Amino acid sequence: MNKLSSASGTVHKAMGVLDLVAAFERPVRFNEVLEKSNFPKGTLYRMMQSLRAEGLLAYDDARQTYSLGIRLMRLAHAAWTQFSLATVAQPYLDQLSRSIGETIHLAQLDNAQVLYVDKRNAESAVEMFSQAGKVGPAYCTGVGKAMLAHLPEIELRAALAQQSYHRFTPKTLASPEALVAELHNIRARGFAFDDEEHEPGIICVAVPVLTAAGRVIGAISVTSTTNKTNLAGLEKLVPEMRQATSEIAQTAELWRFPADQKPMEKLES
């Protein structure tokens, strides 16, 4: 094995350990990480000590727990300000939030899942899963389906294979076939719905953020509850949402994203 391959393998293992610690979403003891890890006890311990020495993990001596280190927070903040679509979209989300008054999400695809990169709460906030920084399923969320529907065929097939198709509610699309049929409809009309597919009582309409070449770089959604409105009511907001996504896409292309991408390929059933 050459030095480059060895270094790559080491980084891969270290990232795996960080992912394990992060997945607990709380300070965690070594034995808890060991139970989830494929590494031998000695190897895992040495890796965690190395990550701790580099400031990527923090250790609480009193509680004997590990958590993500402050160095990761600095790196995350730098990445967020330098690359995230949230930076570009901020003024347009603010304007849309003032105009609509409902919960607004901005999301991107991350390893075939939805990464919520920004959020504006409604005037009357509603408790729901999505928060900026959280990762959620793509197959049963409005933003997820809006983005999947506009992926090139090869990328779409790979993304479909990575969905869990867990049935969160009776309305969840719980098979690739059902999802592909819905994606055809979304491509045809240009926007997606979440009809209580991820959380009971929570509905949304989502519009993709597309470059001039048709490459999907994100999506925004307006989310409400069945007690307050219905899908027809949310659909009325689509023209205003399309204006916002168009402005976000134009600014994003000028700022960061390349425009010389090939047009989208057609979906195949």
- Supply Rg: 20 Å
Helix-strand topology string: HHHEEHHEEEHHHEEEHH
Strand order of the main beta sheet, please?
Answer: 5-4-3-8-7-6
Global morphology: globular
* Helix fraction bin: 40-55%
Proper CATH architecture of the largest domain: 2-Layer Sandwich
Q: What is the name of the CATH class of the largest domain?
A: Alpha Beta
Indicate the low-confidence ranges by residue numbers. Answer: 257-266
**What is the mean pLDDT?**
87
Brief rundown of the structure:
46% of the residues lie in helices and 18% in strands.
Structure description:
The chain is an alpha+beta fold and 269 residues long. The chain folds into two domains: 3-73, Orthogonal Bundle (Arc Repressor Mutant, subunit A), CATH 1.10.10; 84-255, GAF domain (Beta-Lactamase). 46% of the residues lie in helices and 18% in strands. The chain is built from ten helices and eight strands. The strands form two sheets. A six-stranded antiparallel β-sheet has the order 5-4-3-8-7-6, with helices on both faces. β7 and β8 form a beta hairpin. α1 crosses α3 and α5 (85-100) runs antiparallel to α10 (238-255). The longest helix is centred in the N-terminal third of the chain and has 21 residues, at 3-23. The radius of gyration is 20 Å and the shape is globular. The model is unreliable at 257-266 (pLDDT under 50).
